[in-house]
Sequence to fold (324 residues):
Amino acid sequence: MSHAIVMEKTGGPDVLKWSSRSLDGPGAGEVRLRQTAIGLNFIDTYHRTGLYPLPLPAVPGLEAAGVVEAVGEGVTTFKVGDRAAYPAGPVGAYAEERNFPAAKLVKLPDGVSDEDAAALMLKACTVEYLIFRTFAVKPGDTVLFHAAAGGVGLIACQWLNALGVTTIGTVGSDAKAELARAHGCHHTINYASEDFVARVMEITKGEGVPVVYDSVGKDTFRGSLEILKRRGTLVTFGNATGPVDPFSPGLLAQKGSLYITRPTLMDYVATREDLELCTGRVFDAIAKGHIKADINQRYALKDAAEAHRALEARETTGQTILLP
Ligand SMILES: NC(=O)c1ccc[n+]([C@@H]2O[C@H](COP(=O)([O-])OP(=O)(O)OC[C@H]3O[C@@H](n4cnc5c(N)ncnc54)[C@H](OP(=O)(O)O)[C@@H]3O)[C@@H](O)[C@H]2O)c1
Fold:
């Protein structure tokens, strides 16, 4: 018998129940992974509430690290005892053990601990595709990154700084502003007390920025369009305040022939080639000291509901992991 967090229905954190289960397998093409650390992500809350529907009952979670305990038929790339991790599901990470498709798993280098891997895989892979592949930043650019002290945000601050990019980061408190600056964010704006549009125009001397990375969604969408340069790009990649309201493409013409994209990590690691490109760049950035994990919250896996409450209440900074 092993344990997992199961949700029978969508709703508040209380729908996350600690349950026991027995596992068959692993099936062909799968390995059995004993998970040692699991990453908490905001998308887990969208799955829990039903904003992104999952077939129920479901075990949520998309990111974890662990040790291979058994290999299924046809698997030649992993052996028992290998340390491995995954950045983008399939869902089911909130579990002590699971069967997992070998094609979606990567081996962990010696220099990366299980906890750091669980904290970083999904979030650093997200930063990788956002800044190299969705809108490729250049040294000397000035960019805006919303929620700069969060799990994805602190990694972005560090990585952009290492690339010679000037980052303006928005945050919800002065303590978070200090934390973002300590991670290489050059200008911080507390959007709870300051008008971020006015402040960005002041910092950029009226020019605006070529790209805005916006995971806050509904509340920041209009302001994010205001601060883009002519032909700038809005990368809207999350909904912490709710999904963006429908808008007319004419708005993009009015604001200066803007581009907008709504990417998801799954489409940037869909092939084995992309998965290896992405995780390879992440491991390289860790090895070079360009990025590191900031695991500022640890919860027992059985207390996943508490972790969800803290994340949604904006009480967390950096990354949060769940420990089986
Ligand atoms: N599309 C993709 O591929 C992809 C991949 C990974 C993550 N994401 C998105 O990126 C964002 C960050 O993910 P994360 O896991 O690292 O979370 P996180 O940034 O650690 O937490 C979300 C942060 O959003 C800010 N926020 C602003 N208004 C909020 C509200 N009403 N409720 C809750 N939070 C609010 C808070 O920071 P302040 O207090 O500083 O405002 C909060 O700490 C999420 O929106 C997530 O869905 C998207």
Q: What stands out?
A: The chain is about 30% helix and 25% strand.
